[in-house]
Amino acid sequence: MTSGATPPGGPLPIAVLASGRGSNLAALCDAIDRGEVPARVVLVLSDRADARAVDRARQRGLPYRVLLRREYPSREAYEAAVGDAIEAAGARLVCLAGFMRILGPAFVRRFWGRVMNVHPSLLPAFPGLDAQRQALEYGVRVSGCTVHFVDEGVDSGPIILQAAVPVEPDDTVETLSARILAEEHRLYPEAVRLFAEGRLTIEGRRVRILA
Ligand code: GRF
């Protein structure tokens, strides 16, 4: 990855939504700190108070918020609050990084073209939960990861970048997941860099990467 041009108006403000471990959050922050991605994390938002991602945000001194679904009367009200927090923080890109909730149509419309997700398979193969297990059970020889824009479906939005890894004969879910995760940590910052540099356009189902 090369160092990116800083976008007009300074580094791109991004929000990262995470429910769990937060290794992609850390990889993104590390890439930003190395000067490879012209962005800054203005909000880490989690739906779980005990998420490791929240600890990481705290340790790194990043602004974070925990919004619990049970404190809102409906999914729509919850997602409206998530959207309000993102806008209040001034984020212009939302990165889902292990956020274990499907975002509904109102949220997707509100942030269309500005929400990315990383998924641990070569989409459209193996969407949804346990993608690495699905790949192993299917018997594919190659798997990988995908960074895509989020639409109203499950892992179905326009694809930005993909990286492939081999599936080895002795792989377990753990070994395959680790091989894929290393690629996620490289690919997600690269996708954010392309977005921050204004180089991604969505044309129907296809994402064009401008030179
Ligand atoms: C990653 O495997 C990602 O592809 C999936 O959820 C996992 C998140 O891991 N969407 P982490 O919380 O970033 O470590």
Report on the structure:
- The chain is an alpha/beta fold and 211 residues long.
- 34% of the residues lie in helices and 24% in strands.
- It is built from 6 helices and 9 strands.
- Helix 1 (23-33) packs across helix 6 (173-196).
- The chain is globular.
- The model has no long low-confidence stretch (mean pLDDT 96).
- Bound molecules: 5-O-phosphono-beta-D-ribofuranosylamine.
- The site of 5-O-phosphono-beta-D-ribofuranosylamine has 13 residues, from helix 1, strand 5 and helix 6.
Top keywords for this entry?
211 residues, two-stranded antiparallel ribbon, 6 helices
Count the E strands: 9
The global form is: globular
Q: Summarize the biggest pleated sheet.
A: 7 strands, mixed
Widest sheet, order of strands: 3-2-1-4-5-6-7
Estimated structural class: alpha/beta
Can you give the mean pLDDT? 96
Bound molecules: 5-O-phosphono-beta-D-ribofuranosylamine
By DSSP (H or I, 4+ residues per run), the number of helices equals: 6
The separation of the N and C termini measures: 14 Å
Low-confidence stretches: none
String of helices and strands: EHEHEHEHEHEEHEE
* Percentage beta strand: 15-25%
Which radius of gyration do the C-alpha atoms yield?
A: 17 Å
| Helix content estimate | 25-40%
